[in-house]
Each structure stands twice: as C-alpha cells, then as structure tokens.
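re: that chain from earlier
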Amino acid sequence: MLRIKDKARIWTCLLTAVLTLCASVADARNITFAWDSSQNWTAGTTVELEANGVSANGITGTQYVLDVPVQPGEVISARARAIPPTGYQCGDPLEICPPSPWSESLVQTVPPDPTGLWSTKEPIGGGGVMAAPTFVSQYATAFNSATTPKTAMSAVAINSNDVLVAVASSANSYKTLSITENGAASATLQRSSVVVDYSPAYGWTYVAPSAETITISFSSSGGSGEYFGGNIVRFSGSDGVGASNVATGASGNPSVSLTTTQANSAIVVIVSDWNAVSGTQTFTNNFSGTPTALTDYPGDGAQYGVAIAYFPDAGAVGSKTVGMSAPTGQKWTIIAIEVKGSTSTTVTATTGIDALVQKLE
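^ sequence. v structure.
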C-alpha cells in the first residue's frame, strides 16, 4: 500500500483532467476523446471516461475512441476523471485518495448535409471539438511533357489558414524540381528524395496567413526531354501541417509510415515509379477510411509513373502507414504529409482532492 507523509509528496496526489472531443466527419459515432496527463499524476493513474451512457475505465493513454450512441442533431454529453492507483493514500491523517472531480463537456452535433455526412459543432458550455480538414480542390499540371515552368494555380483566391500541399515528380533523377509562388507567406519543402535511377519526388506545404490570391508554378532544371509534373492539394479547416516522411524501394510495394501529431488529420501521398509500370493504381492504409485518388500519371512503360492521393481522416494520433498494393513491380519513391484538422478551444479543469487541499491550507 502506498503512503505519503510529507507535504511535498502529498501534492503528487493532485490530479488534472483535460477533456477534448474529436469527431470524424466520415463516421461521427466513433468519437475520439483526448486529454492531457498531469505531471502530478502518480505512476499507475488511469482515466475513466463516459459519454452518453457508454463508459470505459482503466485507460492508460491520453486518448480513447468510443462508439457513442448519438444521432445527427443530438448532444454528446461526455466526462472524464483521473483514478489513482488502488490503495494509494494521501492526506494527514492518511486516507485512500478519491478520484479527481469529473471534467465535463457537452457538444452539439450537426444534422446531415446534402451528402449525408454529419459531425460535431461548437461545444456547449466548454470542451473542444476536433474535426478532419476539408478537401477543397486540386490543381494539377500535365505530367506528360518536359515543358517548364508549369502553372498549377493561376490567381486563385484562397482563405486564411488554407493549407496547400504541393507534390511533384520527374522521370529523370538528374532533374531538380522547384516551385515559385507569390503569396504573403513562403512555401516550405517538407520532404524530397533524389536518388540515382529512381524517379525523384518532392513535397512542399504552404499555409495562407490571410485571405489572398495566389499563383503557384512548378519548374524543372537539369536533364532534357524527360517528363515532370505536379499537383497542389488544398484544404480548409486546418490547424496547419504536421508530420511527414519519405521512403524508397526497389522491391515490394510502396509504403511509408509517419506518426500523426493530431487526431483526425488528413494525409497526402505521392508515389513516383522509375519502372513506369502500367496498371490500376491502388492505395493502402492501416487505419479506417478510404483514400481519394487525385490526378496522376499511370506508368507508361518508358518515362515514369506517378500516383497521388489523400486520406481524409487518419483517426486517432499514432503511427500511420500508407502506400500502394498495385501495380506491382514498381521501383518507388513515396512521400506522405500530414494536414491537421481543426480544433476549438478546450476546457482545462485543474482538479485536486478538495479535502486534502483544505487540510494543507
């Protein structure tokens, strides 16, 4: 049985619960609840979670997914609290430490839109909402020519905090690709891979600091006559850019992993194929949700192949793997970039054990 006798160690009993509600638009009943652990939690502290009559306890992580019984337009009533280890004592005189007070949140859900999707709205009286970013459009160049530069976005009006993910590839590993833009911010190169006898791939991001009109072009240098092209994928309702990764392979199927930094993020992926294998392009992932294929260039047997897609909602924070299962026989380069969803403010309930606090005063 654990015991605390001195004042400094008594404070390790204090428990902090922070509750955030996160909802996938594609499957709004599967709600991801997240919270922050406190540095004051003692080893063995767990979390108990309840939402609309469904509960889970003994949770050791900082988030949990519940299938919440809720219909479009109804309210999600959720609460969480920290549970000390069994037998943990505190106070003077010593007594069994109770759980922390509940941290509560009410969130209004939204009726379905014409496409049949529905999600959460603003919290009622506190809490927070996390939702996947919204795909707005794609702006692709031709992939079957060496013409440079190639304009993807020409005087396109975008909104504040829109996230643009620009991906590009070339048939020649000696070509260098770049982008130019006239925005108020600057494009950031997230990942690139230029390896001899592989088709290079690049991935940039741009976050709009305010509403503006932007033009973006792709350019190539080095080599001659080899194809290249790019695509810009635009999202709204985003908190910015998260993780990214790149990988190459001469055998097996294209695959790359990254650890998302926020729940319900989208992931943009580009695969370039030196072997230019033709055939249906099929994307894969190790989380729920169906990828959306974007403008690409199927392998032509001579120059290269390019496959581009986005995964609209990667679910809970964690390691995600994206790739392709077809066509087989590619000599591939793959880049994946996380686009965060949006979050509202969260309610932080710093809670302790009231009786204990009174005794310390």
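The chain has two domains: 7-128+344-360, 134-342.
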